[in-house]
Amino acid sequence: MGKKRVYLETFGCQMNELDSELVAGSLTSLGYSFTRDSDDADIVLYNTCSVRERAEQKVWSRLGAMKTAKKDRPDLVVGVLGCMAERDGTDLMHRMPVVDVMCGPAELDKLPELIDNAVRTKAALAADDPSMAIRKSAKAVALQGSASRRSSTLAAAGDSLESLDLGRMVSPVDVDSKRSAYVRITRGCNKFCTYCVVPHTRGAEIHRPPAHIIDEIKMLADSGVVEITLLGQTVNHYRFEHGSAVTVDGVVQPQKGRTYKGSHHRDSFAGDETTTFADLLYRIHEEVPAIRRLRFVTSYPRDFGNDVLEVIRDCPRICRYIHVPAQTGSNRMLKMMNRGYTIEEYDEFIDRCRSYLDQPELGRPLMLSGDVIVGFPTETDEDHEATKRMLERSRYKNCFIFKYSPRPGTVAYDKIPDDIPDEIKRARNNELLALQARISDEIAREQVGREFDVFVEGLSRKEHKKRGTDVKPGSGMVGITINGAASKAPVAVMDEAVGGDELVQFSGRTDGDLIVFFDAPAQRTDLVGTVVRARVMDADRLNLRGELI
Ligand code: 5AD
Ligand code: SF4
Of all atoms in ligand 2, which is nearest to the CA of residue 233? Predict the structure, then answer.
């Protein structure tokens, strides 16, 4: 078989972006190559999201287009990976026989084998009877299915998925264009918020051994990465019990616990044999100093001890940025969502974060961000007003606002009718967007005159537009498309046309994740991937304009 070309498109969250990067790495090592054009591919993969119906609709329309494409290319292999595959199960394949491969997010280590099987089956079918190859799926399937609620110890013992993260390869070519990387610390979720599909698609919460995480970060740092974002659905729940055997390829890996020595409070500490989230942050900070920026998403507003806040406060390379969704400001809604905290507890947490971490006078204001769901069933005007007050109090730098979307398989879908009309959802959504825009704008203006460390990511989007150059996908891997197009953030891709004394606009981020634009001579491409000092001169919404100092 010749070298097969793969087109991989990613929808959904950062966890999916990381999954795609790891999948691409493992397929590359097996001899596959990647293309940015699905017409040019032998294998088309969609890494999908199920969190809202809209994310799924996009994939349905892509699959519709593939049905047409297959008519001319009977041996084309089409795969659906990720949360939608897990949620829909083989129903999806029945509805769309164009799909040959289905692979849930907890089974991605099996993907190369599935693809290989599907490629062979398709080739055999096409050789035999091309019309059959067009109509028939190759049916290569790996889903977690009913195994999804294994206990975390059991899951950890049999966690073959760990090999996907462990097999990560970083080539200097990728790093040239990207000095920032995601590293998973926790998989899955045990929370069961009533609206959410994630515990059903990604399975039980599993924590990776600290030694694996640190080795991965060291490897990334050695290849030039300077910014790491730790990923977990409830990242602050991280906790690794060293006594419990974790096997990778059947080998038990004994671990020695280390503790966060600077901590006086041990809120989430349970003994020397446990690595807590605070311990993990401290170890990464101390053991991999080449990482200039360490951040983490997404935090759950409960179980976030002062020990974590102390580590962030005491470690200069840990970012003062916390993404901690409240979802709503109404206690009645919180209860129906099964969030497990009251709005008073949430407020107390935000106050605690500020008292530990908000130091604007040192150029380190704490930046918070959140998520809100509007139009959850039975939401009244009063509940909505409570959410508005919550936004005013939380003062997020930005907040993602979603209209409630009932998801099959969740408790809310089964038990609570979606009774808020769409026009009310839309009106409330717009109201919150406007309110948040005002708050974001105010926060941006408060930064004027302050000095910050800015991590330089590359030419700004505007500069790219001016030159008609490409802003490459955020993943940095050539041939992976994120959410159907180029990245959300401009990345460090410099094109050959840039050079000389001419001033060009660069973009970077503060440690609180605020975007700063500044001008520098075009030849200063060496700034990319470094941290510079800048003074904010002007602000418009969340765009800060700075000057190098
Ligand atoms: N409908 C709307 N928004 C949702 N989210 C999760 N599930 C749903 C749903 N069914 C939002 C939450 C979560 C973010 C990732 O997506 O705000 O924090
Ligand atoms: Fe979407 Fe959630 Fe799955 Fe991420 S974990 S892809 S947000 S459903």
Answer: 5
